[in-house]
Amino acid sequence: MRRSSEHTKTRILAAARERFGTAGYDRATIRAIAADAGIDPSMVMRYFGSKEELFAAAAYFDLELPDLSAVARDDVGPRLVAHFVDRWERDEALVVLLRAAATNTVAAEKMAEIFTTQLLPTVTAAGADDPLRSAGLIATQMLGLALCRYVLALPPVTAMSCPEIEHWLGPTVQRYLTG
């Protein structure tokens, strides 16, 4: 019985989500994902091109942005920084997606989508003067921090505690919100 290409892609994505979730990115293989989906590994490559593109397509990340409506407007920036540091610290898959986004357009689009769809509403609700610009600038800070801390592992940045990062970047993010 022939499967439609959409059905095959759906099976591959489901298998990839499960395999990446249980084995992690590095230990998940195209062969294992294909076996889980009940297809030949060449089909995975046909539909997704590479492991990085498959990961980006399968990845959905909830930034778990907090409701900041009860936070004083002048404290939103530091709270966002603290939240993002905590979020990056808890989810290696976000770091994997960031690494992939540096060289893969599919992963880059996924990262942009995550930040656009999730950060913009939070920034808007926080009363930013120019929500679109503010969300973009906040993303530059948080992605830059993640790149330097978790991918490049720059010693001065990796040595900083979370409260230190909040202290240094919080005012910058606050300025992006309130001008």
Describe this structure in words.
The structure is a single chain. The protein folds into two domains: 5-57, Arc Repressor Mutant, subunit A, CATH 1.10.10.60; 73-178, Tetracycline Repressor, domain 2, CATH 1.10.357. The chain has ten helices and no strands. Helix content is 75%, strand content 0%. With 179 residues, it is an all-alpha fold. GO terms for molecular function: DNA-binding transcription factor activity; transcription cis-regulatory region binding. This is TetR family transcriptional regulator. Keywords: DNA-binding. Residues 29-48 bind DNA.
Task: Provide a brief overview of the structure.
Helix content is 75%, strand content 0%.
Low-confidence stretches: none
Q: First CA to last CA: what distance? A: 61 Å
Q: From the coordinates shown, what is the CATH architecture of the largest domain?
A: Orthogonal Bundle
The chain-level structural class is mainly alpha
CATH class of the largest domain: Mainly Alpha
CA-atom Rg in angstroms: 19 Å
What's the tally of helices? 10
Q: Using the coordinates shown, work out and report the CATH topology of the largest domain.
A: Tetracycline Repressor, domain 2
Q: Taking all residues together, what is the mean pLDDT? A: 90
Integer tally of domains: 2
- Beta-strand percentage? under 5%
> Which overall shape is indicated by the principal axes computed on the Cα atoms?
elongated
Order of helices and strands: HHHHHHHHHH
Count every beta strand, where a strand is a DSSP E run of 2 or more residues: 0
Outline the biggest β-sheet: none
Helix proportion of residues, in percent? over 70%
